[in-house]
Amino acid sequence: MSQGLTTADGMPLKQALAAAEARAKRRAFILVMPLLLFILLTFVAPIGQMLLRSVYNPSFSQSAPNLSVWFENNPAGTEPDEAAFEALVLDLQKMREEKSQGEAGTRVNYDYSGARSLFTSTARKADKLEPPYKEAMLEADDEWSNPGLWQAMRGASSAYTLNFYLAALDLGRDENGKIVSVDENRAVYIKLFGRTLFLSALITMTTLILGFPIAHLLATLPLRYSNLLMIFVLLPFWTSLLVRTTSWIVLLQSQGVVNDVMVASGIVSESGRLQMIYNQTGTIIAMTHILLPFTVLPLYSVMRPINPSYVRAARSLGATSWTAFRRIYLPQTIPGIGAGALLVFILAVGYYITPALVGGSDGQLISNLIAFHMQKSLNWSLAAALAALLLGGVLVLYWLYDRLVGIDNLKLG
Amino acid sequence: MALPKHASTLERIWHYVYLVICGLIFLFLIAPILIVIPLSFNAEPYFTFTQKMLSFDPTGFSMRWYDMLLTFGMAAPDAPRDSSWWSDVWNNAAWVNAAKNSVIIGFFATILAAALGTLAALGLSRPEMPYRRAIMAVLISPMIVPIIITATGLFFFYSKTGLAGSYVGIILAHATLGIPFVIITVTATLVGFDHSLTRASASLGANPSTTFRKITLPLILPGVISGGLFAFVTSFDEVVVVLFVAAHDQQTIPRQMWNGIREQISPAILAVATILVIISVLLLATMEILRRRSERLRGLSPG
User: How far apart are CA B236 and CA B177, in angstroms?
Assistant: First the structure.
């Protein structure tokens, strides 16, 4: 057969195989397609849109076209001249017409507090202002000569900006447009990122310290006992997050069960009741409890198949039980430790509900600040920038998790 | 882990210390969940055991907080408890309405997540699936991305598309959050799936849809159901997205609890918590039954 193998209908075998493989590929992909589209539409697209908002905010630039032109033609640090004030007055008149002075002022207010009221009050008089505009404006309110305000307006005059990221990193621009760090009592974000990382690391440590012994016990007990004890790990895992958080409030508050027991047993005096909730301690305790199953489950699944004869061999060769544990057993559990710790850390970094309910003021994490900017201060672009930074960090960790552990190996009970 | 005969005294002591430590950690895990149950029967509005409760005096216990779950929000809570009182409960009681909303949202979100997730898991576990790893990472990501980011994104997205304040919006969001669980459980079931069964079915003349209905689906059903349960629990316990995108009057159980904890925490919350703990015990039992059934179906040893 010199022309090679063919199928019954005369097609070369190689080609037929390739066609069949392509068909199988397509078939597999068609099964995944609906969900992929669904996730792209309801999850990826909304987050993408949010990320766009962190660099794009047209609320000032839209209603101040004249000023935007002036800022473009004059470099940062230029003293605002008569032309600049004329542009400002024209824009204020336009804002008054469109009733957009509040929105535009709010945008400038993010960088220069007091700007919102300045815009609304001056816009009210904008129609009556006569040239020379500079003097008229300064007469209306001498705040208008403040270089900080002009720098803030310059920053807001282009719709696309990285200023929200600067703000999220405790940086700002001075009068000449140079990037500088903001003064110490306004710098909150870096500190909060630091606290989030620190608390997450601490919680990861405590879950490992608490999770390792019980995972080991579960893995070495006969299955019928360990399946029973597993309920202690799985029941918290299945119980509502809000229920678990409520329970901790009940247990730890100053008139709560733990304090009552301690007072009754004389460990602390009636007046010395410990404050364990609505502060950092509360966040740490409650989050450790909530995230503990995420450490125990991967540890257990790694420890269960470990062959006990290795440790026995080490003992028979003269190792003490501590050495046998340290040199033989522990290294075999590293994959479980890594998987559990990484997962807990990823979940802890983005935690919101528990810190919001039991964290008080010093137990808040970065997620809580994002919620604050979304719901209270309404600085949505800053919230989006903070969220983007958090998301970036989480995605790096997620990528690491996928590389080291593999998402296929994620275990749920 | 029995202690060997040759263990030294120090090892014996350490062994018992170790068991005590483990006992304490198990206590740490379970105590917070069990403590709410007796406290929810407190006759006083306190969060600790009263003297009467500790001495098992029946007057120290009451069902008043459970009663409050029914009466809170009613038009006429003091009316005689006949059929019109119960219809008042059904229509007006705040917690009952929240429960209805939670169940409706959870039900549809679960159906959506289970259907789409199972289909995708079938595709993902085929060896010829292209870009398997990357697609899997995208599909699991709703579980990993911090919930506040998802909620923020949805808030902007829904306010533009008009889905804000609608049931459809919440159901779509909750389905998204539940999908990773379905994918994980169903792909785990498919790992042990014997593909010669489907080939045998095909060779006996069944078309792909018959094979799926008669062979594949019954075998992976335990995985689908447990994934669905995970998705339902996720939706039933989800509060942040609801806070961000739901309308003011769209209360769900977790949202109502959230408000209760933030504003004025009352033992009525503990009554809800007790009911939720009982539900999770039932779910856990169901999961265990499903797991055993799945192992039996796939011919694995029970364990």
Answer: 11
Crossing angle for the helix pair B9-39 and B267-297, nearest 10 degrees? 120
**What distance in Å separates the CA atoms of residue A57 and residue A257, rounded to the nearest whole number?**
50
Place of tokens 């009940």: A250
- The Cα A23–Cα A40 span in angstroms is 24
- How many beta carbons lie within 10 A of that of residue A282, not counting itself? 24
In 3D space, the residue among A172, A210, A43, A35 whose CA is nearest the CA of residue B113 turns out to be A35
Residue showing tokens 């289970």: B114
Residue B42's SS3 state is strand
Confidence at residue A298, expressed as pLDDT on a 0 to 100 scale: 92
Q: What domains can be seen in chain B, in order of their start residue? A: 9-66 (no CATH), 99-265 (1.10.3720.10)
Element (H, E) at B47: none
Determine contact: A225 vs chain B, CB below 8 A. no
A45 CB-near residues (< 8 Å, 6+ apart):
B157
* Beta carbons of A67 and A88 less than 8 angstroms apart: yes
Q: What residue has token string 């535009």?
A: A104
Task: Tell me how far CA of residue B162 lies from CA of B37, B154, B158, B238, B243, in angstroms.
Answer: 42, 11, 6, 21, 16
Contact by Cβ (8 Å): B93, B69? yes
For tokens 């003091």, the residue is B78
| Interchain CB contact of B172 with A (< 8 Å) | yes
Work out the angle at residue B177's Cα, subtended by the Cα atoms of residues B172 and B183, and round it to the nearest 5 degrees: 110
Nearest to A358 by CA among A263, A271, A269, A290: A290
A235 to chain B, any CB pair closer than 8 A? The answer is yes
Strands (E), A217-338: none
Question: Which residue of chain B comes nearest to A382, CA vs CA?
Answer: B152
Whether chain B has a CB inside 8 Å of the CB on A18: the answer is no
Highest mean pLDDT pick, A88-92, B11-15, B144-148: B144-148
The ranges assigned to domains in chain A are: 7-44, 65-160, 189-409
In CATH, which superfamily holds the domain spanning A189-409? Answer: MetI-like (1.10.3720.10)
CA distances from A216 to A176, A195, A223, B19 (A): 61, 31, 13, 11
Position A370 pLDDT exceeds 90: yes
- Assess contact for B176 and A42: CB atoms under 8 A: yes
Interface residue A236 vs chain B (CB under 8 A)? yes
Q: What contacts A11, CB < 8 A, 6 or more positions away?
A: none
C-alpha distances out from residue A186 to A183, A218, B22, B27, B75, Å: 6, 50, 46, 43, 50
The candidate with the shortest Cα–Cα distance to A216, out of A115, A106, A318, A333, is A333
* pLDDT digits 0-9 by tens, B26-84: 999 999 999 989 989 988 888 788 888 888 888 888 888 898 888 888 888 888 888 88
Question: Can you tell me the ipTM of this complex?
Answer: 0.90
What lies within 8 Å, CB to CB, of B29 at 6+ separation is A232, A233, A235, A236, A289, A292, A293
What part of B 283-302 touches A (C-beta under 8 Å)?
A: 283-284, 287
Contacts with A47 from chain B: Cβ below 8 Å = 145, 149-150, 153
- Maximum Cα–Cα distance across chain A: 101
β-bridge mates for residue A181, sequence order: A171
Give the per-residue pLDDT at B303: 38
Q: Say which residue the tokens 């816009």 belong to.
A: A123
